[in-house]
Amino acid sequence: METAQKTERQHPVGGSEAEAIIEVRGLTKRYGGDTVVKGIDFDVKRGEIFGLLGPNGAGKTTTMEMIEGLRRPDDGYARVAGYDTRSQLAKVKEVIGVQLQATSLFDLLTVREITRMYASFYNTPTVPIEPLLESMILGDKLNGRVKHLSGGQKQRLAIALAIVHSPQVVFLDEPTTGLDPQARRTLWDIVLRLRDEGKTIVLSTHYMDEARILADRICLMDQGKIVALDTPANLISSLASESAIEFRLPAGDHAAGADHPSAERLAERLETIDGVRRIEFRKESWVLYTDALQRSLTGLIAFAEQEGLALTDLQTRTATLEDVFIQMTGRSLREE
Amino acid sequence: MKPYIQLTLAQLRLFGRNRQVLFWTLFFPVVFIFMLGTFMGNGSGGAVEGYWIDEDGSERSAQVLAALEEQKAVLKLEQAKDREAALEELRHGTKQVLIIIPAGFGDTVEAAVTGQHSGVSDSPAGSLTVYYDQTQASKSMSALNAAAQAADEVSKAVVEYSPVVAVEPVGVQSLNLTFLDFIVPGIVAMMIMSNNLNGVAGQIASWRERGILRRMQSTPLRPSTFIAAQITARLLMNGSQALIVLLLGIFVFGAQMNGSWLLLLGFVLLGTLAFMAIGFIIAGLARTPESAGPIAGFVSFPLLFLGGIFFPVSDMPAFMQPIVKAIPITHLSTGLRQVMNVGAGIGEVWVEALVLGGWLAAAFIAASLVFKWE
Questions:
Q1: First CA to last CA distance, chain A
Q2: Nearest-CA distance from A293 to chain B in Å?
């Protein structure tokens, strides 16, 4: 079973035959007059890493907390391993493990003490504490106090506490926010290992690289709604343009912005370049999406020569989830 | 049972490892007892110190001085070397009284004696000048009384008067209580109130804010287990802190302990539980940890002054008495004080115990209604 999953890492969830361990239907949450989650539906399949990707305020945390039973949905329902999160919450709590976005732990307890305490909360058998903490690379911190841990170590401890009762589903809410690159990579390895051990992981993030590297499927959320749900590869290929060409123009007529009349004319003419599918102007940069990078690039340079335009900061790259998000919502992931 | 033990242990560890809080919660009441017990209640028992000046030097003035000497239990007088210097000391408060027998005192008295015999005058002729410090009201009153009594004695001797009615004083208070005896139970009551009320309110609100309670809520842990562990740990911790201060007060500072230790311990536990429950209510009502502190302060500050901690509740104005009698701190401080000072048994302090128990029950019901994980 484990080896099968490992070999299938790129496409671990082979279509519809995989069993849904989480079922979400019409899930809705309102705060006052604001509807922050607007009737969403999705399934999470057993053994996958399910990524909730979206900007801050998209409703990721609220969605997760409704599935965890920490918030009551105003409408719709969520089921985990067949248990309803409202009527069978006690059952749900036994099969899930939770790392909350803003959890702080007791600073004055040691790593071992706090793990033993969390283990005591469960009626089901728990895993041996020392091997668990060693697997989270905290073996030499067993008797160290929580307050002396680094940010990455604290997050790994939070994950250890979430899996101390060997739950079927693990919820990780923005586990790498605020960590340095090294600590993020260590955490990614741990998350992938958990999946390989057979756990289902629901992970929220606003980092597209994290979602692309970790998630088997990504649920792209914006303003309380799902804008897309697919594997990272399928999402990117849905752009129908594999590459993007970015450049700037020096301050002048053409650089003034997309709403400038001459810029509008410029955009119309750029669109005629061979292979270009779509044009965006954002953050003072022009972005041409193309499915024929080399031809479009040659075309662009010829166009610039002919018009006497001096291109700066010219770069090409493959299209990313960020581009998908922009296409779907018209906004950048990083915009607050 | 396992989560209850683990949570209790965790809370005790948090207490034990927070050295700073541990130090101040013990240090503060001890310093209070030391300051109030030593500086306000020192053993001079209300004696007034002062000077006398005899400007007359007659036989009559010597008679007055002898009569003043008889009052030395309350009036400790020395001869002043210089009038101005003596007045200066009076202004600085190091001495409280200056009695001057003016020149010509003896002659006036002699003249008056003659006058009285002939029945001409009925107003006293000789007079003593007494300088006193109005800012020290009670000491001044004893000084003036003592001086008046001395003057009275001389008058009686002069006119060869023998009294027909006398007062025979019999002390009913067999215990000689000092201010220290009063303040130790008060400080312990204050400590129990603030440690539990402010401690619970602040900590629970801060745990809620930091998401610690939410994280626990996502596990099968029951709120009742959580609260039971909190109560156990705090009962052990705050109860023993109160006991340490009591022991220090009794055995180091010398406060009297005339009653049953068991009953005293009972009041400590009852007070701890009652104020803990009130703390849980505040933690439930406060929206942020920042507001929990001020709310707890808002509740405990008036109690500090109304509840008989620093002054007897009988000193409160009449219109305040219903409030004073209703609040829990009054009954805790009174209970502790009655047991320690007077050696009261349960038969005499059952009302205090009952009211505290009532507060405890009501507060726990209210706390369980308003408690929330998030």
A1: 42
A2: 49
Judged against a pLDDT cut of 70, whether residue B157 lies above it is answered with yes
Tokens describing residue B372: 């929330």
**Residue B30 clears pLDDT 90, i.e. is over it:** no
Which chain A residue is nearest to residue B1, measuring alpha carbons?
A120
Q: What is the mean pLDDT of residues B208-230?
A: 89
Instruction: Name the CATH architecture for the domain at A2-235.
Output: 3-Layer(aba) Sandwich (3.40)
Q: Where are the domains of chain A?
A: 2-235, 243-318
Q: Is B24 helix (H, G, I), strand (E, B) or coil?
A: helix
Q: Which fold has domain A243-318?
A: Alpha-Beta Plaits (3.30.70)
pLDDT band at B293 (very low <50, low <70, confident <90, very high): confident
Size of interface A-B (CB pairs under 8 A): 65
Minimum-distance CB partner of B13 among A96, A103, A113: A113
The model's pLDDT over B79-107, given as tens digits with 9 standing for 90+, comes to 888 888 888 888 877 788 888 888 888 88
**Beta-strand (E) ranges in chain A?**
20-31, 34-45, 49-53, 75-80, 83-84, 96-99, 169-173, 200-205, 217-222, 225-230, 243-248, 276-282, 285-290, 312-318
In the stretch 60-89 of chain A, residues with CB closer than 8 A to chain B read 68-70
Give CATH for domain B48-158. 3.40.1710.10
